[in-house]
């Protein structure tokens, strides 16, 4: 992996994001805030186009020197592009929920079919249980991950920072075990995607001048899903590791949804009752909230992710250790509770 390639990805992402920013009004990507927003001014959406363009061309370039399993990588890019196009259309003119979920389910099914032979903890393969349980569960988990990542893209810099943390930490854990993997396509893609997100994040850090939009959040979430499942298939990381790395996002969104369901709220409606949104309103700072979540990621979840590799047989216990304090925290913060917001 050359530094030149990474630099090009970052610069390309930054440049394309800047072009979207300059033309947001003309291409219908300038959205006004509403009573559910965490922002008070009209701000461009769709900056995630920079991430897509920063990733895809240079992702393809990495395949030139690594032709092995090229079809799998090309398939993932094609599916990611479908997700991105759907997201861009949704940013410009909202699609119906049926269309959005239909595309997401189809793309996740195709991704799992392309990957094949994903391990079921601890010994079997996905093909053993495809007709019964595990395949549908993975499809459901994939669709939920794409949507929850989108739900968490609600304040400046949060989604981009989380994605970079997950990708870079996963790459470091892989290289810590096997430094020779530095030249593999998988590691190259993880780093290229991370720096493409960083190029966008230069525009998105608080105070944000542009938002990621569905085009960026769903594409980023899908590519993380692909890379996570691929590293699991290769035996480099495991399910526990990735569940721990994504714990902040998974906990906040899942707890909030369940609370809204149980309390009889209209859970499908837009809201701002996530724990991270409540913290942001209390602190009156997007940056402080993001830095707080990054601190949890680095000081709490990253070490536990490492332990899940060193002691894989204790993976379930480590999941409990990772998630329990987060669940207690989001409950304490009142995640999911109804709030009277001025209209």
Structure description:
The chain is mainly α and 343 residues long. The chain has one domain. 69% of the residues lie in helices and 2% in strands. It contains 14 helices and four strands. It has helices spanning 3-23, 49-63, 70-92, 97-115, 126-129, 134-151, 158-177, 185-204, 213-234, 239-245, 247-262, 275-283, 286-310, 315-332, and strands spanning 30-31, 43-44, 119-120, 124-125. Strands 1-2 form a two-stranded antiparallel sheet. It has a two-stranded antiparallel ribbon with strand order 3-4. Helix 2 runs parallel beside helix 9 (213-234), helix 3 (70-92) packs antiparallel against helix 4 (97-115) and helix 3 packs antiparallel against helix 9. It is globular and about 50 Å long. The mean pLDDT is 90.
Features:
mainly alpha; 69% helix; 343 residues; 14 helices; two-stranded antiparallel sheet; 4 strands; single chain
